[in-house]
Amino acid sequence: MEVNQKELATCLGITSRRVRQLREEGLFQFAPGSKRYPLEKCIQEYIEFKIDEETGRKGNLDKERVSAEHEEIKKQISEIKLKRLKREMHRADDVELFLTDMLLHFKQKLTLLPPKLAIGIIGETDVNLVVKKIEAGVKDALSELAEYNPDEIERTEETTEGEEGEE
Q1: What is the tens place of the pLDDT at every residue in 144-157?
Q2: CA-CA distance, 42 to 35, in Å (whole number)?
Q3: pTM
Q4: What count of Cα atoms within 13 Å lies in the side-chain half-sphere of residue 39?
């Protein structure tokens, strides 16, 4: 049986305005394809709502939900700390500092490469020897990018954590 808002309010012993408020809170839903309420379902929902309200179960459920969310956050923090201890994860600012330093060294090697190579190949007539010397210089400069060492990032993290503890 489907009823309008006023009829539902009369059946439940509340005002039409209260029915509207409860609907806005998500309690009552219209029957599919109409603007009327399914009476049986609405009565059951209202009884459950009143029981929850009287027993304070809703408040406990909210406290349990907040507690569960808090525990989940604590779990995520612990997982992050464990990954950092295992060196599976690093802080973004520490990685940025490490990469900036590594790229600056690479830039310096590239900048010094032409004069260094010029001195080594000046007067050479064998093209193969010139190419090999240039390749060696380029490989030496590129080796700077291949020198990833998690211990260097770890030292940066320890310094950062020590500074945070002092604040």
Answers
A1: 777 767 667 765 44
A2: 14
A3: 0.42
A4: 11
